[in-house]
Amino acid sequence: MITVLAFLLTLGVLIVIHEYGHYRVARACGVKVLRFSVGFGRVLWRRQATPDSTEFVISALPLGGYVRMLDESEGPVAPQERSQAFNRQPLRKRAAIVAAGPAANLLLAVALYAAAQWIGINEPRALLSAPVAGSLAERAGLRAGDEVTAVSEDGEAWEDVASLTDVRWRITQSVLRGERLHLMVSEPGGHRSRSVVLELDRVAGQEMDAALMRQIGIGAPYSEPVLGEVRPGGPAARAGLQEGDRVLRVDGEPVGDAQALRERIRASVQDGAGVPQTWVVERQGRMVELNVEPRVTSEGRQAIGRVDAYIGRPYEMVNVRRGPIEGLVNGAERTWDVSVLTLKMMGRMLVGEASLKNLSGPLTIADQAGQSVQRGLPEYLGFLALVSVSLGVLNLLPLPMLDGGHLMYYLFEGVTGRPVSELWLKWLQRGGAFIMLLLMSLALSNDVARLLGLH
């Protein structure tokens, strides 16, 4: 229920803001607005102050909305109202009205990112766990307990990082740009710092998913290798492991942190069966040696081991909070960065340099909305900002049926001095409808595949 309500709230806010952008600028330009609708289909609620004012409605299908303006192309217009018709407005006003919807979404994202930072977001401290074996992080020389303090594109101009979330964001940017990323890390104890280079240009264009993050090697934050809750009847319980046990060695190899222990457990599969392991744990000041046989489960198409116990202690968190001006500036920068990266990812998918699996649809949005709500208001505001940026950028694409497609029509009109012909408009609209249907089908199929664990 929380997921459904969060999804409806997300759609409602983004649709209202988008359409309000169109509505507000249309009214400012002297255009009469006949209807402001949230949703499509059967009208569930209607309000109209006077017969001559705008009709506000909420409709049954909440996957969009529209603002219907007075327009001679859609029906007869009384002579005394022709000056208020959309089609009678100068080109600059029509373009401003169309662009106002995406612009409203982008401005909303700035405000939401800023609000989240004014409230303060609890994020994991930038303490690194043991890098995945063979990953870019391991080859760069990163070790469990290292703390990232700053990042740089060229190794000269450094920017401080506030949390591991900041580090992951910069990694994402560098992967999409096909660039290396320099990290300044402080070793455990903080007595010595060094610079390392993540060769992210080696994985440029790949899908930003869990598999790629494992290839990069920056996983969960650092956590001590201590057992939490042990599920009754699971491999850990059968082996005699208990909550609070500190794992020191597995098969004679030292265990540096919880991430390294998880990796050893995951890899304990051979020929479809779990491989028994010898664990040495510290329990109430004494050493205990136990034999553990992980069970086998699947993660996508990969067989991995599980012991049915919580591995690691809660991560060390930091509260990232910024002042009014700094938060607003950072919100604008984040909105710009996300917009650019969204366009770059779309471009890579278009030319085949990135997987189409990156497309997400309503099911993924609903799932993420529910999760972010449960994590707290700042996290939900950040999620809402991300979706708002995506909606704004998507609507600016030069595809018929989208705001960007109409802006392309106006660009043609501005260059040639004449509007696009009715015949061309008809065929472009059909082509745009086909492309949108194709994209929506692909996004929905990706959603289903993720839910089934196929991606």
UniProtKB/TrEMBL annotation:
The secretion signal range is: none
Q: Which SUPFAM superfamilies match?
A: PDZ domain-like
Q: What is its EC number?
A: 3.4.24.-
**Membrane-crossing segments per the record:** 95-116
Cofactor(s) in the UniProt record: Zn(2+)
Pfam families to which the protein is assigned, alphabetical: PDZ_6, Peptidase_M50
Q: Where in the cell is it found?
A: Membrane
For whether the record's keyword set contains Transmembrane, the answer is yes
The GO terms describing molecular function are:
metallopeptidase activity
Listed A to Z, the keywords are: Hydrolase, Membrane, Metal-binding, Metalloprotease, Protease, Transmembrane, Transmembrane helix, Zinc
Question: How is it placed in the membrane, per its record?
Answer: Multi-pass membrane protein
Top-level taxonomic group: Bacteria
Q: Which InterPro entries match?
A: PDZ (IPR001478), PDZ_6 (IPR041489), PDZ_sf (IPR036034), Pept_M50_Zn (IPR004387), Peptidase_M50 (IPR008915)
Specify the enzyme's EC class, one word. Answer: hydrolase
The record's principal subcellular location, in a coarse class, is membrane
Segments forming domain PDZ: 197-255
NCBIfam families annotated for this entry? RIP metalloprotease RseP
Q: Which PANTHER family match?
A: MEMBRANE METALLOPROTEASE ARASP2, CHLOROPLASTIC-RELATED, REGULATOR OF SIGMA-E PROTEASE RSEP
Its family remark reads: Belongs to the peptidase M50B family.
Q: What is this protein called?
A: Zinc metalloprotease
Q: Which organism is it from?
A: Aquincola tertiaricarbonis
